[in-house]
Amino acid sequence: AQSVTQLGSHVSVSEGALVLLRCNYSSSVPPYLFWYVQYPNQGLQLLLKYTTGATLVKGINGFEAEFKKSETSFHLTKPSAHMSDAAEYFCAVNIFGNEKLTFGTGTRLTIIP
Amino acid sequence: DAGITQSPRHKVTETGTPVTLRCHQTENHRYMYWYRQDPGHGLRLIHYSYGVKDTDKGEVSDGYSVSRSKTEDFLLTLESATSSQTSVYFCAISEQGRVNEQFFGPGTRLTVL
């Protein structure tokens, strides 16, 4: 079985501040991990993914995430928030042999001017 | 952007009526998925398809059926709509299903009165 927990359904940060969105997963086997972003009234778009290899993964729009097996975490960070980062962010997990993604409940990011 | 369209984009219907949502892709991807998105629940998989006429259930399949007679089309049917099926429905496609990225359509907002 696989599951994802996103801590904090709403996060607010000031423009220029660090963005940190938390994701913890549960999986009995090595997972594949994803972060998606959803802008208002749109579908989801992939930000980044971890499959194997380097544990620090860089994505689009300056975001990155680090896979920490010991902490079962895959937190999303961005050094300096922009107004355009305001959106909802979803963490998702998949395991080898399973064709399905399991999504977290999402974190809505608000940027304060 | 991946060529995925959903129709209709918005629909209001009454309890007890049948509803069919269509997902159309121009990418020739093997895998297609239907999700529903509800506040506090993130995205939950309804059904998915791994080829023409090959489908399987997701975690919230009760009250829904699907069909895939062509690679490019994946239909989601609510046999008798209920108010609990008011939601935003997203279609997604994937080339391989596992570690590959899922590409999402723009969504269909369904309201059941």
Can you describe what's shown?
Chain A is mostly beta strands and about 110 residues long. Chain A is about 0% helix and about 60% strand. Chain A has no helices and eleven strands. In chain A, the strands form two sheets. In chain A, strands 2, 4, 5, 9, 10 and 11 form a six-stranded mixed beta sheet that branches. In chain A, strands 1-3-8-7-6 form a five-stranded antiparallel beta sheet, with no helix packed on it. In chain A, a hairpin with a 5-residue loop joins strand 4 (about 30-40) and strand 5 (about 45-50). Chain A is globular. Helices cover about 0% and strands about 60% of the residues of chain B. Chain B is built from no helices and eleven strands. In chain B, the strands form two sheets. In chain B, strands 2, 4, 5, 6, 9, 10 and 11 form a seven-stranded mixed beta sheet that branches. In chain B, strands 1-3-8-7 form a four-stranded antiparallel beta sheet, with no helix packed on it. Chain B is globular. Chain B starts with a strand and ends with a strand. The model of chain B has no long low-confidence stretch (mean pLDDT about 95). Classes of the chains: A mainly beta (about 110), B mainly beta (about 110). The interface of A and B includes residues 34, 43, 45 and 106 of A.
